Structure formats: C-alpha cells, structure tokens
Amino acid sequence: MYRFYKIWRNILRKKRLDEDLDREVRSYLDLVTEDKIHAGISREEAMTQARREMGGVEEIRECSRYSNGSGGGSLPARCA
Fold first, then answer.
1. Higher model confidence: residue 30 or residue 6?
2. Domain ranges in the chain?
3. At 68, phi and psi to the nearest 5?
4. Closest by CA position to 49, among listed 64, 29, 63
5. Which of these, 78, 80, 62, 76, lies nearest to 25 by C-alpha position?
6. Is 40 left (phi over 0), alpha (psi -120 to 50) or beta?
7. pLDDT for 52-69, tens place per residue?
8. In degrees rounded to 5, what are phi and psi of residue 28?
9. What is the signed CA dihedral for 68, 71, 75, 78, rounded to 10 degrees?
C-alpha cells in the first residue's frame, strides 16, 4: 500500500512541477516578447524571435528535470 502511495505522490508531484514550469516559461516568454515590442519589433515577429531564443518548452522541461535531479543520468550538452 505504501508503495502505491509513493507512486501516486510522485505522479502528482511531477504534474505540479510541470504546471509550475509551464507557467514560468510562459511568463518569461511574455517578458521577452514585450521587451522586443518596446524595442520596435512587431508583436508577431517579437513572439517568433522570443520562441526561437528560448527553444522548445519540452527541451526546457527536460533540462529543468536534469538540473533538479529528477532526470537521471548526466546533463545533456544542449542544457549546459
């Protein structure tokens, strides 16, 4: 029973961490986009540039898992 509890707790923890990270990534993307708009770039181009600079959300999530110790193994080169 305790093992089932631990598995369930880890699933919920991972979901919560992923949601927190998604919120942070969106917030940072918005900040970078706004900075680019204030620099005179159109909204569409600013969003495109910000996404390109940040990389993909899945890549960010994977690097975050490695940095907090839950990814296992060594840090991938793209996360360094």
1. 30
2. 21-57
3. -95, 5
4. 29
5. 62
6. left
7. 888 777 777 777 776 665
8. -65, -40
9. -100
Q: Which residue type does 51 have? A: R
Give the single-character DSSP code of 73: S
Rounded to 5°, the CA angle 69-24-57 comes to: 70
Contacts of 62 (CB under 8 A, 6+ apart): 71, 76, 79
Spatial separation of the C-alpha atoms in residues 54 and 52, rounded to whole Å: 6
Q: Give CA–CA dist 49/72, Å, rounded.
A: 31
Dist CA 29 CA 56 (whole Å): 11
Amino acid at residue number 1: M
Amino acid identity at 62? E
Instruction: Collect all residues with Cβ–Cβ distance below 8 Å to 79 and sequence separation of at least 6.
Output: 59, 62, 63, 66, 67
Residues of the chain with pLDDT > 90: what percent? 29
